[in-house]
Amino acid sequence: LAKTTQPISMDSYEGQEVNITCSHNNIATNDYITWYQQFPSQGPRFIIQGYKTKVTNEVASLFIPADRKSSTLSLPRVSLSDTAVYYCLVGDRGYGGSQGNLIFGKGTKLSVKP
Amino acid sequence: EPEVTQTPSHQVTQMGQEVILRCVPISNHLYFYWYRQILGQKVEFLVSFYNNEISEKSEIFDDQFSVERPDGSNFTLKIRSTKLEDSAMYFCASSELPSQGGAGDTQYFGPGTRLTVL
Questions:
Q1: How many Å lie between the alpha carbon of B34 and the closest alpha carbon of chain A?
Q2: Within 10 Å of residue A41's Cβ, how many Cβ atoms?
């Protein structure tokens, strides 16, 4: 199971682009990289998933270099409502567990200021 | 957009009492999960459930815990004799497909039940 390392916290201002990098040096060939978002007192919410290169959806972009030992979640033009904890998950079944259970780390606490 | 619902939103109980936390997964989903999050700590996996049986469980999910799908819509977590350290947010999640050697499938989480054991 690939271990992930991400910053404990980040600060940003409204309108800025935020990039959160996750290190996963021991990522395996079949592993996918998935990001979840969690607001206070709410359940985690899927943001984006990728295997290599770049993935973009209506919420974020995910950049994965060729060696796949890291990944960067990019949030364009953040607003106050993007203040949340962001989790990077890596696993051979997309998440980490043998039956699909998610293995969460401590995540990155993003604070967006006005 | 379909969503996972959980009841109650907050449950207060006395130590040693039994509690049942309820979840209604998304209707066409087949895989169900319970997670918990102690205040200020990580989200922790408890158990996964498919085809009316437990698929996997963590070390946290000891004999005090049980899960059940009593009908076609509800998925419950029972804690038989609550302890102070069971105080946490409990999240139910569901997914349509199993994780299959690669992409996996998105898990959708409910809003959680805050359990307070006094």
A1: 9
A2: 12
Set of chain B residues whose Cβ sits within 8 Å of the Cβ of A38: 43
Asked if residues B34 and B47 have their Cβ atoms less than 8 Å apart, the reply is: yes
B6-29 CB burial, b ≥16 within 10 A, e <16: beeeebebeeeeebebbbbbbeeb
Closest-CA distance of chain A to residue B60, Å: 14
Residue B112: left if φ>0, alpha if ψ -120 to 50, beta else—which one?
A: left
Tell me how far CA of residue B7 lies from CA of B11, B92, B105, B112, in angstroms: 9, 10, 25, 8
Lowest mean pLDDT among A48-62, A83-97, B47-61, B83-97: A83-97
Q: Is B101 on the interface with A (CB under 8 A)?
A: yes
Closest-approach residue (CA) in chain A for B101: A93
User: Residue A49 and residue B34: Cα distance in Å, rounded?
Assistant: 22
Pull the structure tokens for residue A96.
Answer: 């980490």
Q: How far apart are CA B64 and CA B62, in angstroms?
A: 5
pLDDT tens digits along B47-91: 999 888 998 899 999 999 999 998 888 999 999 999 999 999 999
